[in-house]
């Protein structure tokens, strides 16, 4: 009894697959509709400058990281106060890219996105793809508290640069932070050490610190990016901010500038002199911060959020104090510091409630909104005039008081390939795996490659 | 009866085949499609750029080529070591003991050992990653192995195993073996249980030692199981990602020394915003897995022995 079925397993399978593939390839991830995005303009009504439809729902996504999301809930309450009928969808997550990238691809993104954390969607690709709304209408709108003052005028100096891509503002970096070197003021007082201002003073102090059984330096060895600002600012202080701008602008031989070489050599020497806590290249940021809290190391490079983050963990008598990275004698711009906005809030261009999103950011930037943030997480926002009580925050404010000295090295955020390379190269440099010369060579190589690659959009400081 | 047969069969097949096509085949097909574009992953517009992604892929000295090398190493080492250990332990636990009055048994306490070896299988990969990260930590920071090595006077890597370019890949492979060996022990044990004891008893009477028993009886009769294990472990080797992500510095470091294909796909898709390029790497991985399965099934085929 032989039969020859029309459908054997294999061709049934093939036919179905082919049919399905043909009919639905057009209807999947890569095929969202490309709506013509609306534009938001600033109207005359100072209460509601963007003409928000009070009944339109608002979809907010918050990065649930070090700052939590309690502040966002409070901001949403403020929004609801103004627009009681608006239904707000609030999502707090750490998986920003995994949850939000598909929505962008579908053409149905959320309205307000806090694009932060390790899982942020790369800003360069969002900007190059034209997925984000430009924020000038927000900045030109009257501020929430005073119709005669624009939102732009309520912000600290230089905080927009981080979200500015070729002259256009695509992200509001809400949190104001600075990269500094931390030390324990109590330890220094007890031991009679003076916090060094120059690199040479620091080197002179290191043997004394070691004599007390403490390693001079530690850092998050598994995440060498914690050294990024320290190295670059060290170089920038020595040679002036132009050195760093040239690096960001991918100028030929920008990395071979003597200040950069000197900074790389100095970092390498910390390792070869044994001034770094043994085992540091193998630890992560939590372990390095714990070692610092336990006073196993005297200096730790980190951002200004550190004392708040450690408040509950550090010993009660630990006094977090920031200082600028000690500069080389003869530096031309010793006050240079990496400070500005972080925690980028963006508005997708295809947001359903575009006006509501602008209004939400305007509320965040109100005095009350900024104070809510300051009170809940003890960190400064980019809004001027919010008082924070703790001494570390006040000391940080001192360090960032000169607007001409504020500069954020940006290539890491502009060019992902360079970001990867600088992390790996810093790790190799600081662990003694590679020399300063090798570090400079590989960074110059990746910069030249990036400059030569026409498929990569190029960015510049100040347009 | 025959007349209504196909609609009847088809009605059963429609749902599973439909689901399979929708959830498995279609995404694969889409990965092919996407790999020919310049899609970033966060937009709904893209252009077709032909095979550029595939060409660039084999020029990528920073991520893709090291990842292919490392995955290649894992692909060779992981199955060999895991299967060798699995077979050895299974043999010892089932047949390795002293024979009492002609009965062949495993070593003493074999039931206890079986449970202990199976333990890692019960833990989730994330827990294994965190656990071993600490085990491999620098001595200064409570590393178990580095501490033990120093205690007995051996030189230990000062920054721990995971921050050392020389050891990081071996450290990851060791964890993979550790977590897989228990499963294959049980797997081979049950296969060994189906080998008739009289074969062994006859061999013992003929004066065979344990080595001969293993290589002349056990291994040949387990060949099918070994082959299955080989394919399965190879696929595990190609898919290594979570441990690298959890344990190593910069998820593939230090300085790219533990970069694997799975991790590189993730990096391009979500860190670099280059979904199309990531899809191209995925397609290459897909063909590698397919080739591997076909090759090992074709060339590993041996005569079946029935008993």
From TrEMBL, chain A:
Lyase as UniProt keyword: no
GO cellular component: cell envelope
Keywords: Signal, Transport
Record's subcellular location: Cell envelope
Keyword field contains Signal: yes
Predominant place of localization: other
Protein name in UniProt: Carbohydrate ABC transporter, N-acetylglucosamine/diacetylchitobiose-binding protein
UniProt organism field: Glycomyces terrestris
Gene designation per UniProt: ngcE
Automatic annotation (TrEMBL), chain B:
Membrane-spanning ranges: 73-95, 115-132, 167-187, 229-248, 276-297
PROSITE patterns, per database record: ABC_TM1
Signal sequence annotation: none
Any one of the GO BP annotations: transmembrane transport
SUPFAM superfamilies listed in its UniProt record: MetI-like
Protein localization: Cell membrane
Major location (coarse): membrane
Keywords: Cell membrane, Membrane, Transmembrane, Transmembrane helix, Transport
Single GO cellular component term: plasma membrane
Domain ABC transmembrane type-1: 68-296
Membrane topology: Multi-pass membrane protein
PANTHER family for the chain: ABC TRANSPORTER PERMEASE PROTEIN (PTHR30193), DIACETYLCHITOBIOSE UPTAKE SYSTEM PERMEASE PROTEIN NGCF (PTHR30193:SF41)
Similarity remark: Belongs to the binding-protein-dependent transport system permease family.
Name the record gives this protein: Sugar ABC transporter permease
Source species: Glycomyces terrestris
Organism phylogeny: Bacteria, Bacillati, Actinomycetota, Actinomycetes, Glycomycetales
């Amino acid at each position: 009894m032989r039969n020859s079925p029309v459908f054997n397993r294999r061709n049934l399978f093939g036919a179905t697959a082919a049919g399905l593939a043909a009919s639905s390839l057009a209807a999947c991830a890569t095929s969202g509709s490309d709506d013509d995005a609306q534009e938001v303009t600033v109207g005359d009504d100072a209460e509601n400058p963007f003409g928000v439809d009070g009944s339109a729902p608002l979809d907010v996504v918050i990065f649930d990281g070090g700052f939590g999301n309690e502040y966002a809930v409070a901001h949403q309450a403020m929004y609801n106060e103004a627009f009681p009928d608006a239904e707000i969808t609030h999502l707090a997550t750490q998986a920003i890219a995994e949850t939000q990238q598909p929505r962008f691809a579908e053409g149905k993104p959320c309205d307000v996105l806090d694009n932060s954390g390790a899982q942020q969607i790369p800003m360069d690709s969002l900007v190059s793809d034209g997925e984000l709304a430009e924020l000038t209408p927000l900045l030109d709108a009257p501020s929430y508290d005073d119709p005669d003052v624009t939102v732009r005028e309520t912000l600290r100096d230089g905080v927009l640069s981080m979200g500015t891509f070729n002259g256009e503002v695509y992200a509001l970096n809400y949190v104001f932070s600075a990269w500094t070197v931390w030390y324990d003021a109590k330890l220094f007082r007890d031991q009679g050490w003076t916090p060094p201002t120059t690199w040479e003073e620091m080197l002179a102090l290191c043997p004394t610190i070691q004599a007390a059984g403490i390693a001079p330096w530690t850092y998050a060895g598994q995440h060498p990016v914690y050294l990024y600002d320290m190295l670059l600012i060290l170089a920038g202080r020595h040679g002036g901010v132009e050195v760093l701008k040239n690096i960001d602008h991918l100028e030929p031989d920008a990395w071979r500038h003597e200040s950069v070489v000197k900074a790389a050599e100095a970092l390498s020497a910390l390792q070869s002199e044994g001034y770094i806590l043994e085992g540091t290249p193998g630890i992560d940021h939590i372990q390095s911060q714990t070692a610092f809290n336990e006073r196993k190391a005297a200096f730790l490079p980190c951002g200004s959020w550190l004392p708040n983050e450690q408040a509950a963990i550090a010993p009660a008598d630990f006094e977090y104090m920031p200082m600028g990275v000690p500069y080389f004698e003869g530096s031309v711009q010793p006050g240079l510091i990496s400070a500005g906005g972080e925690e980028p809030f963006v508005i997708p261009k295809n947001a359903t409630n575009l006006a509501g999103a602008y209004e939400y950011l305007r509320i965040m930037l109100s005095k009350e909104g900024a104070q809510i943030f300051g009170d809940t997480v003890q960190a400064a926002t980019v809004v001027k005039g919010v008082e924070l009580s703790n001494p570390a925050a006040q000391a940080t404010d001192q360090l960032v008081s000169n607007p001409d000295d504020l500069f954020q090295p940006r290539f890491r955020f502009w060019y992902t390939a360079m970001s990867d390379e600088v992390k790996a190269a810093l790790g190799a440099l600081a662990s003694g795996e590679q020399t300063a010369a090798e570090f400079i060579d590989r960074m110059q190589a990746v910069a030249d490659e990036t400059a030569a690659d026409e498929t990569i959009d190029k960015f510049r400081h100040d347009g | 009866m025959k007349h209504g047969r196909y609609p009847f069969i088809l009605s059963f097949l429609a749902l599973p085949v439909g689901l399979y096509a929708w959830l498995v085949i279609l995404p694969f097909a889409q990965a092919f499609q996407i790999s020919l574009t310049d899609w970033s992953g966060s937009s709904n517009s893209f252009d077709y750029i032909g095979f550029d992604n595939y060409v660039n892929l084999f020029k990528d000295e920073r991520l893709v080529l090291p990842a292919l090398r490392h995955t290649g190493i894992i692909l060779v080492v992981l199955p060999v070591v895991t299967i060798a250990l699995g077979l050895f332990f299974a043999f010892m636990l089932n047949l390795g003991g002293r024979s009492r009055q002609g009965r062949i048994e495993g070593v003493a306490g074999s039931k206890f050992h079986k449970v202990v070896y199976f333990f890692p299988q019960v833990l989730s990969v994330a827990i294994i990653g965190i656990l071993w990260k600490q085990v491999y930590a620098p001595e200064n920071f409570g590393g178990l192995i580095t501490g033990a090595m120093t205690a007995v006077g051996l030189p230990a890597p000062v920054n721990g195993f995971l921050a050392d370019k020389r050891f990081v890949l071996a450290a990851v492979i060791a964890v993979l073996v550790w977590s897989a060996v228990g499963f294959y022990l049980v797997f081979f044990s049950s296969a060994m249980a189906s080998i008739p004891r009289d074969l062994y008893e006859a061999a013992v009477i003929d004066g065979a030692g344990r080595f001969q028993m293993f290589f002349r009886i056990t291994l040949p009769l387990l060949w099918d199981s070994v082959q299955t294990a080989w394919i399965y472990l190879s696929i595990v080797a190609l898919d290594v990602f979570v441990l690298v992500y959890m344990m190593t510095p910069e998820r593939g470091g230090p300085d790219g020394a533990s970069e694997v294909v799975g991790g590189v796909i993730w990096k391009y898709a979500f860190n670099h915003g280059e979904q199309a390029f990531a899809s191209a790497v995925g397609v290459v991985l897909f063909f590698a897995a397919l080739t591997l399965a076909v090759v090992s099934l074709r060339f590993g085929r041996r005569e079946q022995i029935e008993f």
